[in-house]
Amino acid sequence: MDTIGHFIDGARIAGTSGRKADVYDPATGQVTKTVALAGADELQRAVDAAKAAQPGWAATNPQRRARVFMKYVQLLNDNMQELAELLSSEHGKTVEDSKGDIQRGLEVAEFVIGIPHLMKSEFTEGAGPGIDMYSIRQPVGIGAGITPFNFPAMIPMWMFAPAVACGNAFILKPSERDPSVPMRLAELMMEAGLPKGVLQVVNGDRQAVDGLLQHPDIGAVSFVGSTPIAAHVYAEAARHGKRAQTFGGAKNHMIIMPDADLDQAADALIGAGYGSAGERCMAISVAVPVGEETANALIEKLTPRIEALKIGPASDSEADFGPVVTREAKEKILGLIEKGVSEGAKLVVDGRGFSMQGYEDGFFVGACLFDHVTRDMDIYTQEIFGPVLSVVRARDYDEALSLPTEHEYGNGVAIYTRDGDAARDFAARVPVGMIGINVPIPTPMAYHSFGGWKRSVFGDLNQHGPDSIKFWTRTKTVTSRWPSGIKDGAEFSMPVMR
Ligand code: NAD
């Protein structure tokens, strides 16, 4: 069986800690590979290689650094199918969906091709008599990224593309559930011309994360994953004097106003609720129809659409979504569905008994729809991260607005309406980081920044876009005054002693 090691100093190396984890094909439920879990020695090797490589890379002019990303984008496109199939084989999402995962990361690589422009800074001429002042952006040094299972291509690229383009060395600790694509992404960066040691992948679990957080040579840490771990990583990084941006879980609402196009809203909910088996941080997991009439009509439109969803392994090109990532994830989701039933929500579409013929051991969960969910229920307060949509009925707009306002998470939210005034008021008032107006998953493009509010994020700078350049660089401000020189006092005759 294949054992995935680490990618250090430009080459794949075997793990030496003796610890490893199983990697599954979620469609079959079978272990297909193992992955090495790094200990302190492997982490130190990665840091040593990063320290050796970073100064030379930072001194490489930004246009040349950009050219590596130009080539990289081309390589990602050339290898798209192979990468997508590899991604699906460990994550479980459909191959088309995996291509989207890669594409959204690729777009961050495209964004940082502008790094010569993005790193330009400020200049004040004549800040005082004969004094100029300018600020420059310099790389932090060595950055680290810790990523979740659900976007094993996009999220590593959110982090390493800007970090590396800014002149940092970077150590990626991907999810141990689907580590193969991150390894390939690092290999392709080498193929694109990145010097060895600049980008490395250290596979592992909590031990590797703690090692990164405590290491004195790592200056900045970016994390995406669940909220309790995000809070832990943020606190530990700060305790060790590092800058940190850590992104956590979500419970994204979609408000459906009585004037909305209900067919459009229902279609949007199907894609945003069940795509990728609900395992997206921007998935819509709560639908909030406003008014009883809207709610009844929405349930009527959703039910047949959900019942018609096709579930299958990633290899089935007809499938709408695949299995969830692990047996534990499946059990957690089924446990929460049971809880919802016992708490009194109405399970309108029941996917609990779903079994995939020929894939009986796979981690499949059928699509579920709950109606009459209330704000005190666990299925409302907790992130389910599965193919489960909850409908919370609101009497009016203000009640609808209060739901995402009061929820502890604030990643994304959407409103469906034809009324510009309602949409504008909603966008202005709701305390959530990413807002969709008649757009179900308002994930910003690479040249804007991505991030939530409240307990969906700790730290103040977002992923990609302009924020990422700030996060991965430090500002240095120079104040300069030159004594009067050659223009005033120069002598052009033969100097003689006076
Ligand atoms: P997770 O928190 O279990 O793991 C994320 C990373 O942390 C992994 O690399 C893992 O190895 C590491 N880790 C796990 N336990 C740890 C511990 N005790 N100490 C230190 N490190 C630890 O998350 P997941 O299950 O891989 O991903 C799903 C979660 O990520 C969901 O909550 C989802 O909402 C969230 N997510 C958020 C965003 C966002 O942008 N806000 C994006 C994608 C996913």
UniProtKB/TrEMBL annotation:
Chain ranges of the Aldehyde dehydrogenase domain: 17-478
NCBIfam families from the UniProt entry: MMSDH (TIGR01722)
Pfam families from the UniProt entry: Aldedh (PF00171)
Gene Ontology MF annotations: oxidoreductase activity
Protein name: methylmalonate-semialdehyde dehydrogenase (CoA acylating)
PROSITE patterns attached to this UniProt entry: ALDEHYDE_DEHYDR_CYS
Domain of life where this protein originates: Bacteria
Top EC category: oxidoreductase
Annotated keywords: NAD, Oxidoreductase
EC number(s) reported in the record: 1.2.1.27
Organism: Fulvimarina uroteuthidis
SUPFAM superfamilies: ALDH-like
